[in-house]
Amino acid sequence: MSNNISLLNQYWTDIYFHLHYPHKEKISHQVVRILQLIDKRKEIGVGEVASHLNVSHNTASEHVKRMIAKKYLKKKRATKDERKVILSLTNLGEEVLYRNTSLDEKKLEHVLNQLNENEKSLIENALKTLSERAKQCM
């Protein structure tokens, strides 16, 4: 089983390496992780960012302040409890996240056009199943 897991990780990194968008911004891995957290989960505040990154509240707060200054994030008060600040991505933040975590659609299309319909269907179903199971791990 361990060999299969290593192979799957190798395939994943090969795919990303060859098909990712060129990086335009100088952006740290932690900034990408924060953008992903806020995109994938709702009602995220600084405390959840700190917990997710395993850093102090003050450190997370500094990251968030810099990301707000760069216009990647915005904050608003929670409707149920106005003491809580909720973070969300701006349009720019969504674009930066997409460019730093997604596959280049033109490159991906080029690769997929080289496959037959059965291969495309197998890949789509496999990735869909893996995605669904991954979401259950949280």
Textual characterization of the structure:
With 138 residues, the chain is mainly alpha-helical. It folds into two domains: 1-20 and 104-138; 26-102, Orthogonal Bundle (Arc Repressor Mutant, subunit A). Helix content is 65%, strand content 7%. The chain has seven helices and two strands, in the order ααααββααα. The chain has helices at residues 2-19, 29-40, 46-53, 57-69, 91-101, 105-112, 117-136; strands at residues 73-77, 85-89. Strands 1-2 form a two-stranded antiparallel sheet. A hairpin with a 7-residue loop joins β1 and β2 (85-89).
Short description:
The chain is mainly alpha-helical and 138 residues long.
CATH superfamily of the largest domain: Winged helix-like DNA-binding domain superfamily/Winged helix DNA-binding domain
Number of domains: 2
Beta content comes to: 5-15%
Strand order of the largest sheet: 1-2
CATH topology of the largest domain: Arc Repressor Mutant, subunit A
Helix content: 55-70%
- Return the CATH architecture of the largest domain: Orthogonal Bundle
CATH class of the largest domain: Mainly Alpha
Please outline the major beta sheet. 2 strands, antiparallel
Number of DSSP helical runs? 7
Task: Report how far the terminal alpha carbons are from each other.
Answer: 22 Å
**Number of strand elements:** 2
Mean pLDDT comes to 93
Estimated radius of gyration: 18 Å
Globular, elongated, flat, extended or rod-shaped: what is the shape?
elongated
* Order of H and E elements: HHHHEEHHH
Low-confidence stretches: none
